[in-house]
Every structure is written in structure tokens, then in C-alpha cells.
Write a structure and sequence with these properties.
This protein is globular. By secondary structure, the protein is mainly beta. Strand 2 and strand 3 form a beta hairpin. The strands form two sheets. Strands 1, 5, 6, 7, 8 and 9 form a six-stranded mixed sheet that branches. Strands 3-2-4 form a three-stranded antiparallel sheet, covered by helices on one side. The chain is built from one helix and nine strands. The chain has one domain.
């Protein structure tokens, strides 16, 4: 896992923030420490993302968080050509990937893929989590390819 010195996303986007119900508080606290965590059931050991109040596998309410390596593989992707927010008008295209995390039961986590937005994408490419700090806000998880495919 690495840290980016500059931000990938343009200014003017709404700032990321934990949910008001507190469900994802530990996820955001971990990203500020530049750690990636995934929710894990203390009863059955199953992983899940995004966070929920109940285990998707055994329906237990005994859930915790497990630190994971931040290494994964591209499961799916999309090159975004049409901005979903006015601040992204000049940022298109950009790449969004769905990353499968093998050390977290193969749960999948979305994020932006850093680098050339026109780069060829190969399903199964190794990626690593990159942490993007935002002053006065949360730290975002982005992804970077770590092998040639």
C-alpha cells in the first residue's frame, strides 16, 4: 500500500464522510492510518464489503474489522466518459475498477484506477491500494496496477 502526494480527484467534489449511523467509522479511521480494513464476522469468519449490521453469511450481529494487505486483482472496470458531478467535467475519462481482495474472502471493493485513463485494462491484473489524503476530510482508497497484466 502506498500514499499519493497529490489528489487524483479534482477540487469541488463533495467531501467523503463516514455515514451518520457510524457503521463505517472503523473503515474511515483505518484509511486515515493508511490501512485497509474489511468487515469480518466474528461468528463465522466471513468477510463482507460494504459494511452492514448483520453478517451476509450466517446472519450474526457479531461483526468486526480485519486489516488486509491492500493487494487485489481487477475483477471488473469501467472507463467513465460522462461526468457524474459538475466538478468532474474536465476530469473525464477516468477509470473505475472493482477489485477482488483474495485475503478478505474475495470480497470486492470499488475505486478509481490511477494512471493514464486510456491505459488498457486487463481483468485479473494485480493492483494495490493507494491512500489519498484530503485536508479536513477523509482519506480515499484508490488503486494502482502493480504488474503488466
Amino acid at each position: 500500500m502506498t500514499t499519493e502526494a497529490t489528489t487524483y480527484l479534482p477540487a469541488g467534489l463533495p467531501q467523503p464522510a463516514p455515514a451518520v449511523d457510524g457503521l463505517d467509522t472503523e473503515f474511515w479511521a483505518a484509511t486515515r492510518r493508511h490501512e485497509l480494513v474489511v468487515q469480518k464476522c466474528n461468528a463465522c469468519g466471513g468477510f463482507q464489503f460494504g459494511p452492514e449490521w448483520v453478517c451476509h453469511h450466517c446472519h450474526s450481529f457479531d461483526l468486526g474489522w480485519q486489516r488486509v494487505s491492500g493487494n487485489g486483482r481487477i475483477y471488473s472496470w469501467e472507463r467513465v466518459w460522462h461526468p457524474v458531478h459538475p466538478a468532474l467535467k474536465n476530469a473525464c475519462p477516468y477509470l473505475v475498477v472493482l477489485v477482488e481482495l483474495p485475503d478478505a474472502g474475495n470480497v470486492r471493493m470499488p475505486g478509481n484506477l490511477l494512471g493514464d485513463p486510456l491505459q488498457p485494462i486487463i481483468i485479473g491484473s494485480a493492483v494495490e491500494a493507494v491512500f489519498e489524503d484530503h485536508d479536513g476530510s477523509e482519506t480515499l482508497v484508490q488503486w494502482r496496477v502493480t504488474d503488466g497484466g
